[in-house]
Amino acid sequence: MRCPKIVVCGATGNQGGAVAAALLKSGSWSVTALTRDPGSAAAKALADLGAEVLKADLLNMRSLREAFRGAQGVFCVTQPWSSDKGRFDPGMEIRQAKNIIWACRETAVPHVICSSILNITESISGVPYVDSKLIIEDLFTRNLSGCIIVRPALYMENIGTPLMSISDNKIKGRFAGDSFIPYVALSDIGASVAEIFSSPDEFADTKIILAGDLVSGNELAKWASEVSEGRVFRYEPANELLLRLFRPRFYHMRRFFTKQGLLLHRDTSPPGAYHMLPADPLTMAEYLSTKFGNSKRSPFVHIR
């Protein structure tokens, strides 16, 4: 007997790939992975794991309708980066969302999970491609009954990328060294989405925060030093004034995520406004242990 079909949009990206892998690992679903390039290494890896890989474009309604037919669920993650224009295009991302919504409606998909971004108070950040997520959330919740919104924190996997580079034993970040910032591992995003699809009625019409650890930059450097072999790291924050003057987008993002972390740290977010998954997430220390080589438990504030 064929397992229920779950379609994963953006399956060769960070989140989509983690979700597809988790669903395949569970063995409870037949996974259809959507990508614009079925010949990519990521697409071939998913096919090797057992996914059906289909070519589809979130800006092409017809391709989505064909992919969604017969699906029990759809996981959707939209993205604002336009390679054609070489910049962020929130308007294009909103069009992606509208296409997904109408394709789900026309094919009567019963369970839809939309990935957004951590935003406890649903406040405007001043960053266009962050604020567009609120518009997208509203479109999904108004047009798809029972739609579930997941709101992931920053990826732990960003550490060591240009978003948080490591060079000369310096971890360079955009946040103040003493600010608690929420992070989540991609594997936990995937595991959480798989858990939600296993009992979607329980989570219908909810907004779910996905956060694993609250970590300051200074603590991150201290812990990285402890789990590495002989390296001593220090955290080097970007200058807030220079960000405000020359990179206002990153300045507003710094303020926004600092506020999110503060609310989670103080537990002052609206009671009952969200669920929190997974139950036992990967801590930053555990993630750094895999990155730098040793295994220890985290001394950081840990969300449960």
TrEMBL record:
InterPro entries cross-referenced by the UniProt entry: NAD(P)-bd_dom_sf, NmrA-like, NmrA-like_oxidored
Superkingdom as given in the UniProt entry: Bacteria
Keyword field contains NADP: yes
Keywords: NADP
Domain NmrA-like, first and last residues per copy: 5-288
Keyword NADP on entry: yes
Pfam families xrefs: NmrA
Similarity section: Belongs to the NmrA-type oxidoreductase family.
Protein name, entry field: NmrA/HSCARG family protein
